[in-house]
Design a protein that fits this description.
Radius of gyration of chain B: 25 Å
Number of strands of chain B: 2
CATH class of the largest domain in chain A: Mainly Alpha
Helix content of chain A: over 70%
Structural class of chain A: mainly alpha
CATH architecture of chain B: Orthogonal Bundle
CATH class of chain B: Mainly Alpha
CATH topology of the largest domain in chain A: MetI-like fold
Largest interface: A-B, 99 and 104 residues
Number of domains of chain B: 1
Oligomer: heterodimer
Strand content of chain A: under 5%
CATH superfamily of chain B: MetI-like
Structural class of chain B: mainly alpha
Number of helices of chain B: 14
Number of domains of chain A: 2
Strand content of chain B: under 5%
Shape of chain B: globular
Distance between the termini of chain B: 37 Å
Chain lengths: ~300, ~300
């Protein structure tokens, strides 16, 4: 099918079309190249010449320093993993149950429940009322709960899953209903297993949102530092290293290593983001599928 | 209602309970503290012990120069984001659709979506790798020509830098959405156009663009409803929260964040938030009405 329109692309048009896409790709990739190459350069050469998309005076000092005291970073990873896993789980359960209910044509609360949810998108109290309520009354300030629950129940996910559930024909349920199955059985045993692709898509979105969210932790906690925030604590880390180097630190030998102040930020950035970025790229088909479903089913 | 239907409805209501409770506790109950906007709120005294001041917080806000600054910045940053984001995404989507080499399509799709998976704090670090005073790549290259710029104390360039970062991070994703819509267009239209002797760009204008038109219009007006809501993380991390840049980069969200976490000025912050929410609410109503009209008409 596709061949007919694709056989011949005149050179001029081809240069223009491929050229535009390639320029965009280069603009996307160059910053990452600068990041990686700077993290592998010596801090002296970076200071002298500035960052470049190629490695200058190869050095792994920055990484050695980052992994010298990995405890803080690992703690951040732990926070992020707990919040992301628990948050995604809770978000999917909350969204799926409601999405199933409002997808059922015979549900009389359909309109009112849908409105109840969509109103929270149209009008939000904002984060200051939330802050007072969470901190002084609900007592979830500075806990895992606030990080896990606040972003949960994303209305976009509700709409996506409702579209998936609505796509299932009612006739599917008739047979089990005659056998006396109730709506819970239909939800858990029949409908949800059939829309696993939709659930996977929502999981992907959810993981992405939780993992890349520095704001909730910054706003509603004092002591939790997920990896998205850890990046911004680098200056403190460097101060700590300097202190440790000057005053001696039990059991650690710096071997007269100069602290690579100008490259350590890049090494930390890579150490905290690379693993998850790889996972996102591997699973991105679920993401693209969500986009197409959203686009078609509106 | 028959007993069976009643039972079914009860079960469906029960399924909704977890969601309803979560939203009640995290979205509806906080509405109560919007009343802080009409008080001189002191946390120790609570909502019922604090002094009521009527509309004085709003008066203060409107008279102060801050309001003009944060509203202007929010609107400009959003408008620039919508305009450039849409133009780049549409062109990219149209061009991706014309690509015939499968391997190239696969690679380019993955690459253009990639920035969307990156967090804003990391984008902020990428920006500083180019612009930082001490080691930035762009800074050091400009330095070769004689002057060493200090971007982080030069507010005027930051509308551009924020917009660039915004497009860089998000346009690839919308481009792939547009591409997905084009994949659903009837192939025969393209074949017919080819027989008629339409060139590649001719087909883009006569077939692809009309196919995308509705979605582009809907996207644009939906973003317009959020014209006062700026992505906090984008502005905060791309600018590294540099105070020297506030004249061009302070937006409603960053102002409220400082009112809350630095100054503890709950009432002014809430008043700002309430104004923003009200404007957003009426814009959303308008936008819903417009988009309903548009999509109905487009069906026929």
């Amino acid at each position: 099918m596709k061949q007919s329109k694709l056989n011949k692309m005149p050179l001029k048009e081809g240069v223009f079309i491929y050229g535009f896409i390639i320029v965009f790709m280069v603009l996307v990739l160059v910053p990452f190249t600068v990041l990686v190459s700077s993290s592998l350069s010596s801090t002296v050469s970076i200071r002298a010449n500035g960052a470049r998309p190629w490695i200058q005076d190869f050095s792994t000092d920055a990484y050695r320093i980052v992994f010298m005291y990995p405890a803080e970073m690992l703690k951040s990873y732990l926070v992020s993993i707990i919040v992301t896993v628990a948050g995604t789980f809770i978000n999917v359960i909350l969204v799926a149950t409601s999405a199933f209910a409002i997808s059922r044509p015979q549900f009389r609360g359909k309109r009112i429940v849908s409105f109840y949810y969509s109103f929270t998108v149209m009008f939000q109290a904002g984060f200051i009322p939330n802050y007072i309520w969470f901190r002084n009354y609900l007592n979830i300030f500075n806990t895992y709960w606030v990080l896990i629950l606040t972003p949960a129940f994303m209305v976009g996910h509700l709409i996506l899953l409702r579209a998936f559930y609505s796509g299932l024909p009612e006739s599917l349920y008739e047979a089990v209903k005659i056998d006396g199955a109730n709506e819970f059985t239909i939800f858990f045993k029949i409908a949800t297993p059939l829309i696993i692709p939709g659930i996977a898509t929502v999981c992907f979105y959810s993981v992405l949102t939780y993992w890349n969210d520095p704001f909730t932790a910054m706003l509603y906690t004092d002591d939790f530092i997920p990896v998205a925030l850890y990046l911004t604590r680098i200056t403190q880390y460097i101060e700590f290293l300097k202190y440790a180097q000057q005053n001696g630190f039990s059991g650690v030998d710096f071997n007269n290593l100069t602290i690579p102040e100008d490259t350590i930020v890049y090494a930390i950035a890579i150490a905290t983001t690379a693993p998850m970025l790889c996972i996102f790229v591997v699973f991105q088909k679920y993401f693209v599928r969500g986009l197409t479903t959203g686009a078609v089913k509106g | 209602m028959s007993a069976a239907v009643k039972r079914e409805n009860l079960q469906l209501w029960i399924l909704c309970i977890p969601g309803i409770l979560k939203v009640l506790v995290f979205s509806y109950i906080p509405f109560m503290w919007l009343l802080m906007a009409f008080q001189f709120y002191i946390p120790r005294r609570g909502l019922f012990g604090s002094t009521w001041v009527g509309f004085r917080n709003f008066e203060y806000l409107i008279k102060s120069s801050v309001a003009t600054r944060i509203i202007t910045n929010s609107i400009v940053i959003n408008v620039l984001g919508i305009v450039f984001g849409t133009v780049v995404a549409v062109i990219l989507g149209l061009f991706l659709f014309e690509i015939s080499k499968k391997w190239f399509l696969k690679i380019s799709q993955t690459v253009v979506i990639f920035p969307y998976f990156v967090s804003w704090p990391l984008v902020g670090i990428l920006v500083s790798a180019f612009l930082s005073e001490r080691t930035g790549m762009l800074t050091s290259i400009i330095d070769l020509f004689g002057t060493r710029p200090d971007f982080y104390s030069e507010p005027d360039v930051w509308w551009g830098i924020i917009t660039f970062s915004n497009v860089w991070k998000n346009a690839g994703l919308s481009a792939v959405t547009y591409y997905a819509v084009l994949m659903g267009v009837d192939r025969e239209l393209y074949e017919a156009a080819e027989i008629d002797g339409a060139g590649r760009f001719g087909r883009m204008f006569s077939i692809s663009m009309p196919a995308l038109k509705l979605m582009i219009v809907l996207n644009v007006i939906m973003s317009s409803a959020n014209i006062l809501r700026v992505d906090f993380n984008m502005v905060y991390y791309v600018t590294n929260n540099a105070a020297a840049l506030y004249s061009k980069t302070d937006v409603i969200e960053t102002y409220m964040f400082r009112a809350l976490r630095t100054e503890g000025d709950y009432s002014i912050g809430t008043a700002t938030g309430l104004l923003q929410a009200l404007v957003g609410f009426f814009l959303t109503l308008a936008v819903n009405w417009i988009s309903k009209k548009l999509s109905e008409e487009s069906l026929f």
